[in-house]
Prior knowledge:
- With 171 residues, this protein is mainly beta.
- It has no helices and 17 strands.
- The strands form two sheets. Strands 1, 2, 3, 6, 8, 10, 12, 13, 16 and 17 form a ten-stranded parallel sheet that branches. Strands 4, 5, 7, 9, 11, 14 and 15 form a seven-stranded parallel sheet that branches.
Amino acid sequence: xxxxxxxxxxxxxxxxxxxxxxxxxxxxxxxxxxxxxxxxxxxxxxxxxxxxxxxxxxxxxxxxxxxxxxxxxxxxxxxxxxxxxxxxxxxxxxxxxxxxxxxxxxxxxxxxxxxxxxxxxxxxxxxxxxxxxxxxxxxxxxxxxxxxxxxxxxxxxxxxxxxxxxxxxxx
Length: 171
């Protein structure tokens, strides 16, 4: 899937590709450019709420607004692998993360995110979940940790030039 300039609004469980997924699924090689996703709760660049999904080799670039909000998924039980977001996030409440708002496992991924508002913030994940071998651009416009409370499994990068070309570690 390759979407350009989608503008999505709604209440809860809002994403540019899917709102709510409660089954095993894969988002593979999917791209959203210049997307805008606006909702109340569980809002993500790709998916609002996820139970049992793999997001791999994909990216979201754009703006996401809501509560429990993430650059790829708002609330997640699943895995993000080899994916990224370049995103402006406005959290109206609760958790916000550059890739995932709440939950999920993040592997071999990165984000360049500007995050404002919210209660529990992380550059990669707002709260809970696990992170391994992932990166975020540490600027003054995003949280100082990759998830609320820590930096285990992730690395802060202070130069945007690091993200030019292939940033995925070999795994």
